[in-house]
Every structure is written in C-alpha cells, then in structure tokens.
C-alpha cells in the first residue's frame, strides 16, 4: 500500500469572522474602542501575506509556547485531522519606538505552525497601529 503524501499546507485562505471579533476584543485592551475598530477594518481589507513563524515570534517578542499548551495542542490536533487553520491577524510594530509586533489573533496558531514546520511561511494580515 502506497503512503499518502505528507501534507504541507495547513492554512485557510481567509480569516473567519470570529477571528476579527477576537482581534478587536484583544486590541480594545490596548487602545480605545474606536482605534480598535479602525485597526480591525484595516485587517479585513489587508492583503494576505506570508511570514515564517520564527520571524513572527521574534518580531512580537513572544515566547514559543510548548506543544502541550492546551491551545497549541488543539491546533496541532486539528491539523492532524485534516482541518486548516485561519491566518493570523497582526498589528505592525515600530522598531524605532521599540514597539513589538502585536499578535491580535493567532498566537497559538503561530506556535502550532512552528511545531509543524518552522521553515514554512504562514498567512497573515497586517495592519498599522496608527
């Protein structure tokens, strides 16, 4: 019996509606409601670009969560069952002001992607803070 080819694409083309809601909820803790809503609208309109998980972790200054973290493990299990993950939603940092990249939605998906293959690029939508 022939082996099935190893899956190399784990991502949906577009974020789901609840991803934008989650991003808005998180961002509203950092900026005003009006600013949060404006950023979410930027994210909805932004083109999807791709970046390696390791670069997103470095730019955000967030640690790689362990593979047994409940949310990371859930995403890894979803992929092993054949499900695809949503692109991550990001707010561009400002290096000159020492402001890191903000992961508005998808931190656990970034970590899961790193465990799947650290060299693969994952889809992202990026907005500017203001």
Can I get a quick summary?
By secondary structure, this protein is α+β, with helices and mostly antiparallel strands. The chain is 41% helix and 15% strand.
Written account of the structure:
It is a single chain. By secondary structure, the protein is of the alpha+beta class. The chain has helices spanning 17-27, 33-45, 53-60, 70-80, 107-116; strands at residues 48-52, 88-91, 102-105, 121-127. It has five helices and four strands. It has a single domain (17-127), classed as Alpha-Beta Complex (Conserved hypothetical protein from pyrococcus furiosus pfu- 392566-001, ParB domain). 31% of the residues are buried. The model is unreliable at 1-5 (pLDDT under 50). It has a four-stranded mixed beta sheet. The N and C termini lie far apart (56 Å).
Strand and helix map with partners:
Layout: H1 17-27, H2 33-45, E1 48-52, H3 53-60, H4 70-80, E2 88-91, E3 102-105, H5 107-116, E4 121-127
Parallel strand pairs: 2-4
Antiparallel strand pairs: 1-4, 2-3
Helix pairs in contact: 1-2, 3-5, 4-5
